[in-house]
Amino acid sequence: MADVNWELFDRQVAACTMCGLCRGIRHKVPGQGDREAPLMLIGEGPGQVEDEQGLAFVGPAGQLLTKMLAAVSLPRERVYICNIVKCRPPNNRVPLPEEANACKLHLRMQVALVRPKVIVLLGATAAKNTIDPAFSITRQHGQWIERKGVWMMATYHPSALLRDETKKRDAWRDLQSLREKLRELGLYQDLLSGSP
Ligand code: URA
User: Fold this and answer.
1) For position 2, what pLDDT does the model report?
2) Which atom of ligand 1 is nearest to the CA of 125?
């Protein structure tokens, strides 16, 4: 993607009215974190707390996500975190295909800017909108695929883990697999130590 920069991205998201989700929100939630991170996490869409603060994954699911990262010694501030849609869907419903598609322009630009080596999709919506519309999170979580030199894997959304504790075992295995992949690619030590 030629001629992209963060200023353009920020302006594009701020001005966006490509779907109806921006009506009735308090804040857009573009995403945040290390803009040069080798690891990018993509969730579904902002919830209530995220909408209030304009930040991704800062509510209860976000707190669990921070703990999940810490369980494999990854400091949250060293990764980049964003969502499929940048505006909160009413009552936290799943974004409609046309909403997710409209917002892909922003997500593509984000990926082009961060240039992550590894992307983790959090939940079925993120996986369906990036890997495959027919993706089954129960059957395919933890499986790695490589696309254009970027390694991608989906795991359970932290909100799903808050609703159903029995999924935590599988999520833990996925996190260990993430750690292994980062090690294999020579990225883990840098992420741990805080060096660039
Ligand atoms: N759920 C998401 O998918 N994203 C957030 O930012 C918060 C909750």
Assistant:
1) 67
2) 3
